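Proteins fold reproducibly. Next comes an illustrative record:
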Amino acid sequence: MGPSGEEEVQSIILISDDEAEDTLGNSVLFVDPQEKSTLGEEKPEVVDEECELMVTFCKQANVMPHARYDCTTHPFERTECDTCSPLGKNAEICDQCYCYICDKLASECQNWTTPSLCHCNAHHKSRFWKEQRDFALAGVLVMFNLELADIDAELRHGDPFSYRPLNFFRYSDVFALVTRFLNQAEQESPKAAAVMLLGAAKEIALHKDPALSWQNLGHTDSLKIAVPCLFQRITTQLQRMLVLCDFPKTLYEKFISFFQSISLPCHCFGFSNSLNVVPWDHVLLTTVLKGQNITGQRTQKGRKVFLWETLPVIEARVEKLVDKKNYREVVRYLRAVKCNDTRG
């Protein structure tokens, strides 16, 4: 009852239970005893005696944004990778059609009907189109085999190929350019820095030496001397990051896998296993830190396995343990770990 004693009438919205089975049907019912249909015609009254509700008219549901292949207004034809021209009526769109590749309104897609691209034919059932979408959204990060859900703002900020030296006669110019890029990378957030460093490693591994003779050149002039120096800096920084930064496990593994996929030139073979840094939850490392293994060795499948780590990794582990004030673990670790770097 209202303030004046009159009975208040409210509109009620009912969601149809059959919506999932009939997406083209009426999915929303507006109930109002005093309201007429939008066409100005009185609809036959439907009374639900159990709920005591009177249905006077129904209204078509609003069309929500959707990929072109899901459009209910215009039919869509699917093929695996047809990019020559629009198939059937695939180029036709409604106001809410989105481009599957660009992830924006189809009316704003510049390649909607472009020959050899034809985004209007894209759909989620095709491996080809899915790869095109991943590359469009992830850019060069797609080469890290990352899921789109893994790519956050930090990763997107890392551009491993922003320098790309193309033509040069002495490698010293390239060395200086790459060095500036690495300086920039080391100032970025951990994820962005890791992507930039790994991208730089892949790029410099492909460089060819412009000099016919390198024996009498300085260490920055000769590619065969300069590139290992750059690799040493890159791998050392990455080793520390793998220890100090709390990367998600999947991202940690994909960074290592990406580095191992790089085809190293003969003058860089020594770096092949440089990123095989054992994670903190590795069974041998955890037993050492807990004091359950004081020797740093265990037998695995009949072979003795030792806790060997490079000096940058050892320094990074000690740094992190000290920051957490885990001094007993520092002592246990240093007593058990082995290193082939006598300087340490």
About this structure: The radius of gyration is 32 Å. The chain has four domains: 12-59, 66-142, 159-272, 279-344.
